[in-house]
Inverse folding.
């Protein structure tokens, strides 16, 4: 997942992080070319999808398109990056702050247990 991706002689980096949204988390993906962020998905509430953005590199305007698949238990998900219609990367990106998902799950389990406790305590 930490492969060396290049585009027009510049390094390409794809990073993912969890973004809190009310009672759940979504992943936001950032794509960098030569250290400049060219695309940010912003944590869309989609299990799969795509996002595109226009950016300028070396004086020319380009179109980047990122598509992603389902996240697995490894806290990573597949993605495909195309720039100007040409494939640049077809790999997986690991979610950097994945423990945040465990905190949300713990809160939801605690709330569920509290509700069950209240329901069964009032029956006795």
């Amino acid at each position: 997942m930490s492969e060396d991706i290049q585009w027009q002689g510049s390094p390409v980096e794809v990073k993912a992080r969890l973004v809190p949204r009310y009672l759940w988390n979504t992943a936001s993906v950032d794509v960098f070319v030569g250290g400049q962020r060219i695309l940010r998905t912003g944590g869309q509430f989609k299990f799969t999808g795509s996002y595109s953005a226009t950016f300028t590199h070396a004086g020319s305007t380009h179109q980047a398109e990122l598509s992603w698949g389902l996240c697995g238990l490894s806290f990573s998900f597949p993605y495909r990056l195309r720039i100007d219609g040409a494939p640049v990367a077809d790999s997986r990106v690991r979610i950097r702050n994945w423990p945040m998902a465990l905190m949300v799950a713990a809160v939801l389990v605690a709330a569920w247990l509290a509700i069950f406790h209240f329901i069964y305590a009032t029956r006795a």
